[in-house]
User: What shape does this take?
Amino acid sequence: MSLLQNRSADQVIFVDVLEDNMNNLTNRLGQDFPRDKNNWQVRCEDLKNIIVPACDSQLFIIAGVGPHQTIEFINSLCASAPDIAFDLLVCSVHGNYSVRQALIDEGYKLKNERIIFENNRFYEAIYASKNASKVIVDTGSQMWCWSDPEHKDYWHRVVAHYQQKAKKDPLQFEPIVSRYEALRDSIA
Ligand SMILES: C[S@@+](CC[C@H](N)C(=O)[O-])C[C@H]1O[C@@H](n2cnc3c(N)ncnc32)[C@H](O)[C@@H]1O
Assistant: This one.
C-alpha cells in the first residue's frame, strides 16, 4: 500500500491464496486508492502459478513466508521466464542462509540488504537484481553493523538457530555455523 501511497510504481499487484483476505484487501484498496486514480490488481492465486510478464522494471516482493516457500517462489518465478530480468525484494521468516544461496544460484546480485527488528522478531530484507554488481554473501554483508547491540543479538539468534539444527544434521548445518562464526571473527 505504501508503494501506491508514495506513487513508487506504475502498477501494484497483490497476490495471496487466501480468498477472504484478498476480498477484504480489495474492499480496502477500493476505499483508500480509487481505481480511477490508482493502478492496482488483486490476484487470489498460488504464486507458483504466476508467469513473470515480459515488462521492463519489475519488482517481486516475497514476504512473510518461511525459507522453503521463499525458495520455491524464487525458483518458480525464475523458471516461468528464464530470459526476463526482474528484481526481488525478499523478506523471509528465518533461514536466510538458504534463501541467499537460492538467489546466488539464480544469478542474483545485491542491490541492498537490511536487518529489520519488528515486534521482537528479526527479518533480513534482501533486495536483489540480476543487473546489480555486488555479490550476495550467504551470511549477509553490508547489513551488519557490529556496533549496534540489536545486530549482535540477531547474530547470536542466527547462530543458536543453526547450532540447534546441527545437533540433528551436523553435516548440513555445522558448515553454516562456521560461516557465521567466520563472519564475526573477520570483524573482531
Ligand atoms: C505470514 S503471511 C504474510 C503476508 C504478507 N505477505 C506480509 O508479509 O505481510 C504469509 C502469507 O503467505 C500466503 N501464501 C502461502 N503460500 C502461498 C502461495 N503458494 N501463493 C500465494 N500466497 C501464499 C499465505 O496465504 C499467507 O497469507
Notes: The first helix runs from residue 2 to 5.
